[in-house]
Amino acid sequence: MIGARTDDPDGTRSLAGALAGHSRPGDLILLVGGLGAGKTVFAQGFAAALGVAGPVTSPTFTLVRQYRCAGTGPVRQLVHADLYRLDHLTEVADLALPELIEGEAVALVEWGDAGAPVLGESALEVALAPTESDRRRDGGAEPRTVDLAARGPAWAGRRDEIAAALRPFAADQRVRGAR
Ligand SMILES: Nc1ncnc2c1ncn2[C@@H]1O[C@H](COP(=O)(O)OP(=O)(O)OP(=O)(O)O)[C@@H](O)[C@H]1O
Ligand SMILES: [Mg+2]
């Protein structure tokens, strides 16, 4: 597992952007965390780094949104899904997310842990959570822990490069630096 931390929404966006640079077509990223944890904020930073133009908004009611990526990397499309309103795994399966990312796309799936059983074995799980230890900052910004766990071979081989890309956000480094 890779443990990271951000101080505010822009920090979460920039962490997501750093990860996006290491994403490849066919990747599935499960965004995990409670209401307001920062899953959509993460998706915004990820999308911006892939060259998505225009706003990325919550897909809570549309379930799935697709964006064209104008960046120079291999990812040509971003699929942003939200499973919050779905009660059954058959509904998750009906979204056909594995088919949507075949070829050129990456999928970010909010509340993705709920759908994991029908989304395939290979996924990067990104868990966002507020930290209890820090006081609330100005403007509603709060630190978040961001823990990344890779499942399956597509991600295992990239673990070291992702850890390196996220080193500026490393949770242990931040704790040491604060002392
Ligand atoms: N460090 C931080 N990272 C991300 N968001 C933060 C941070 N600090 C404060 N926030 C605020 O927390 C909120 C996160 O909202 P967001 O919509 O991204 O959550 P979500 O996990 O997608 O929630 P939902 O489950 O409702 O979809 C925003 O209002 C954002 O400004
Ligand atoms: Mg959301």
Written account of the structure:
The protein is 29% helix and 24% strand. With 179 residues, it is α/β, with parallel strands linked by helices. It has a single domain, classed as P-loop containing nucleotide triphosphate hydrolases (Rossmann fold, 3-Layer(aba) Sandwich), CATH 3.40.50.300. It has a seven-stranded mixed β-sheet. Helix 1 packs across helix 2. It is globular, with a radius of gyration of 16 Å. The C terminus is likely disordered.
Average residue-wise pLDDT: 91
Instruction: Give the name of the CATH architecture.
Output: 3-Layer(aba) Sandwich
Helix content: 25-40%
Structural shape: globular
Secondary structure tally, helices: 7
Any ligands, ions or cofactors bound here, and which? adenosine-5'-triphosphate, magnesium ion
How many strands in all? 7
Text of the CATH class: Alpha Beta
* Adjacency order of strands in the biggest sheet: 1-7-6-2-5-4-3
Return the domain count: 1
According to CATH, the homologous superfamily is P-loop containing nucleotide triphosphate hydrolases
What Rg, in angstroms, do the CA atoms define? 16 Å
Strand content: 15-25%
Question: Given the helix and strand composition, which structural class is it?
Answer: alpha/beta
Extract low-pLDDT stretches.
Answer: 175-179
CATH topology: Rossmann fold
